[in-house]
Hints:
This protein has helices at 43-54, 56-61, 74-84, 97-102, 143-148; strands at 13-16, 21-23, 31-36, 64-70, 89-92, 105-110, 113-118, 122-125, 131-135. By secondary structure, the protein is an alpha+beta fold. It has a single domain (13-148), classed as Glutaredoxin (3-Layer(aba) Sandwich). The strands form two sheets. A seven-stranded mixed β-sheet has the order 2-1-5-4-3-8-9. A two-stranded antiparallel sheet has the order 6-7. It is globular.
Amino acid sequence: MALQVGDKAPVFEGKDQNGDSISLNDFAGKKVVLYFYPKDNTPGCTAQACNIRDNFAQYQSAGYVVLGISSDSEKSHQKFIEKHQLPFSLIADTDKSIHEQYGTWIEKQMYGRKYMGTARWTFVIDENGVIEKVIDKVKTKDHTAQIFA
Length: 149
């Protein structure tokens, strides 16, 4: 079953772009924007990450921690962050365990072919670890406006 507003956000643990362990518990008492995206350095994912970067002051002034998650490696995340000067951490979920917890590893279809992939979903989590908002139809170039709407 998909996570919904009012659900407790699953506590995850993963490695960020520097290989450091990062957990949802690290941000207890803080608001978190947790966004799942398919792949580093692809057009839609780059547009989304850069939209968040360009509006990062708005997230900071609202007290949000921003975390991106994809199944890419730490090294891929490092290159993505460096190339686009991203001011937030990216979590490497190479075993898809966090995707599984959040229900974002789903069957997709393109050109009639079915395959498993990442659902581009964003979860806004409050200071108590409760999901405040789920965005399952992400507008990559206008994502910040969706989050703050």
